[in-house]
Amino acid sequence: MPYTADKPSRAESSEQLRARIPGWGADLDPRMRPSVPKERFDPGLNGAHWEFPDRQPETRPRERSIEHAFLTPVFGTSAPPKGLSGVIRRYAYRRFSEGRAAHWLLLLGADRVDAVESHLASFVTLRPDNPITETGVVAEPSHHPVASRVGQKRADLAHLPLDPVLVVGPWLLAGGLVLAGVRAVVRAVRR
Amino acid sequence: MRAMVYRGPYKIRVEEKDIPRIEHPNDAIVRVTLGAICGSDLHLYHGMMPDTRVGTTFGHEFIGVVDQVGPSVRNLVPGDRVMVPFNIYCGSCYFCARGLFSNCHNVNANATAVGAIYGYSHTSGGYDGGQSEYVRVPFADIGPTIIPDWMDDEDAVLLTDAVATGYFGAQLGDIVEGDTVVVLGAGPVGLFAAKSSWLMGAGRVIVIDHLEYRLEKARSFAHAETYNFAEYDDIVVQLKKITDHLGADVAIDAVGAEADGNLLQHVTSAKLKLQGGSPVALNWAIDSVRKGGTISVLGAYGPMFSAVKFGDAMNKGLTLRMNQAPVKRQWPRLFEHIQNGYLKPNDVVTHRIPLEHIAEGYHIFSAKLDGCIKPLILTAAA
Question: In terms of CB atoms within 10 Å, which of A18, A54, A104, B227 comes out highest?
Fold first, then answer.
C-alpha cells in the first residue's frame, strides 16, 4: 500500500519468473540495452563515408519547412504538389512554421481538397474511382463480419456508424449538389 | 510496377507506377519481396496525418532484394537480400552521430519535428513506401542490412519496425528488476513491448485492450496478465486496485492517435481531425502509473496538439520518455534474442495478403475483422 513505506510484495520471485518465461532478465543489466544511454556519440558507427552527404538534384522547386536552413541534401519526390491543393500546400510551407497550428490545418485542408480534385479528375480517365473496391469493404462477407463484432465488448463499436458516413457522405453530398445544379440548369433552359 | 496508391481517406487501390530510379549517388532500388501493414499506416489511411497526398504509396515495413545501386554505394550489390529499417537516415548529421537515427536532420525537407519514414506522408519526408514491387532506398550504405541466412523472412520484415519499436519502448521504461509494467494496447507493438518487458526483468506485465482476441494473444504470446477496458467502468481505478493502490512503476502507450475508450477524444481526433491524436491511452498511462513512475510513448501521434493531461503528469513527478525507434540500433541484440529463442516475431502474423488485394487488407485490419493482429503483404515480384 502507498500509505506505508514498503513496496508491495511480488507474486512471483525473479527465480520463478526466470524459470517460467524464456529470456527473463536477459537485459536486466542496462549495459545490455542497445538504447541506453539515449545518446552515444560515435560518428564512425554508422558507415557514413561523408561528412555532409552529396546533394540530390532539385529537378523542380521543392517545398520545405521554413525551420530548415536549406533544402535537405536528400528528400522525397513522391506526389509533387498539384492543383488547388498544391497551391494551399505551398502556402502552408512558405508562410507558417511547424510551430503554428495554421501550418498543419492548411495541410489537412489541402489533403481534403486533393481527394476531391483527384476523385473528379478520375472521372475523365479510363479508371474512375470506385468507392466499393477502394474501401476494401468487399472483404466483409468472407471475413466474419458478424462474429467479429456481435457479442464482443469492443469500444470502437460506439463510433462504427460514423465510418460509412465519413466515406459515403461526401459522395452523397457531391451527388446531391450535382443533381441540384443539373435541375437548376434544366429549369433555366426551359424558361 | 504494381504499387498500392492512396486515393483519399479510407480509399486505396493498386496502380501501375514507374519503377523508382536512382536520385542520389547513395540510393539503392530494392525489389520488395515481403511487406506489412503497420497500425500506424491506419492513421494515414484514415486521413489523420497532415500532408498525405493522393498518389502516395504507403509502407514502411518491408524486405527485398537489391536491384540497382547508386555510384557511391559500397556496402550492397545487386542481388543482396536486405531488411530495411523504417527510418531513412544519413548516418552523419548531429543526431545520427549520437545514435538518434529516427531524428535525422538531412532527409526530411518538409519538417524538422520528425525524421523521415518510408511511405508515411510528406510530413515524414515525402518518400514512397514498400507496399509495392520496387522502392527507392536512400542512404543504402546506412540503413539496410543483409538478412542473415538463418533468419526467417517474416521475422525479418517484423524487425524493420514492430519488434524493434516494442523492444525500444520497454527500454524507454527504464525497467528495474521486479517492476510492474502496464502496456496499453495489444497490437503487434504492444505485444512486443510486453514480451520485451520481461527481458528487462519486469516482475509483472499487465496488458490493456478492448479486443478479446488480442488479449488472448497477450496471455499466450507475451505471458501477460490482461484486462479488457470495455468491461470496466473506469480502467484507471481497476489498475489502481490491482497494484495495491500504488499504481504501476512503468506504463507504455502502444496505441497512439486512434485510441478508443473515450468517445469525445476519439471522434474529435480520428474522425474530425481536430487533435493530433486521441490521447486516451496516454492519459490512462499518466493516471495509472505511480507517482515518480515512468511513461514510455510508442504510439504515433500527429503533429497537431492533443488534449494530454500534463497537469497530472507534472504533479505526479512522472518521467515521460518517447521517440520513434532508431531501429538498426536494436538489431544486433534482437538478433541474439531471436537466436536464443526468446523472441519469435512471426507468432503475431495472422494474415498474408497479396498486394493486388491490399484494399481488402487495410479494411480487415482497420475494422479488426477475423482476429486480425498483423497482416503481411505479398508482392508478385517476390
Answer: A104
Task: Mark whether B234 and B368 lie in a shared domain.
Answer: no
Are residue B99 and residue B180 in the same domain, yes or no?
no
By Cβ distance, the residue of B11, B111, B172 closest to A134 is: B11
Per-residue pLDDT tens digits for A72-106: 999 999 999 999 999 999 999 999 999 999 999 99
**Under a CB-based contact definition with an 8 Å cutoff, are residues B301 and B322 in contact?**
no
- Mutate which: B46, B199, B333, vs A, most A CBs within 10 A: B199
Cβ-defined contact of B7 to A2 (cutoff 8 Å): no
* Cα–Cα–Cα angle for A42, A48, A52, rounded to 5 degrees: 100
Q: Whose CA is closest to B281, among B189, B175, B152, B146?
A: B189
Same domain, B170 and B224: yes
Cell numbers standing for residue B126: 515525402
Q: Which residues of A touch B23 (CB under 8 A)?
A: 56-57, 77
Contacts of A191 (CB under 8 A, 6+ apart): none
Answer yes or no: do B136 and B123 share one domain: yes
Q: What does the DSSP assignment read for A23-81?
A: TTTTT-SGGG-TT-SS----TTTT----SSPPPPP--S-----TTSSS--SS---SS--
Across the A:B interface, residue pairs with CB atoms under 8 Å apart total 311
Tens digits of per-residue pLDDT, B223-243? 999 999 999 999 999 999 999
Which CA distances in Å does B101 have to A41, B193, B323, B330?
12, 20, 10, 11
| Digit-coded pLDDT (tens) for B70-80 | 999 999 999 99
The 3-state secondary structure of B10-70 reads CEEEEEECCCCCCCCCCCEEEEEEEEECCCCHHHHHCCCCCCCCCCCCCCCCEEEEEEEEC
Q: Give yes or no: residues B137 and B273 share one domain.
A: no
For chain A, how are helix, strand and coil distributed in percent, rounded to 5? 45, 0, 55
The amino acid present at A16, given as its one-letter code, is Q
pLDDT single digits (tens) A125-184: 999 999 899 999 999 999 999 999 988 889 998 888 877 777 677 778 878 888 999 999
What range does the domain containing A110 cover? 62-71+81-126
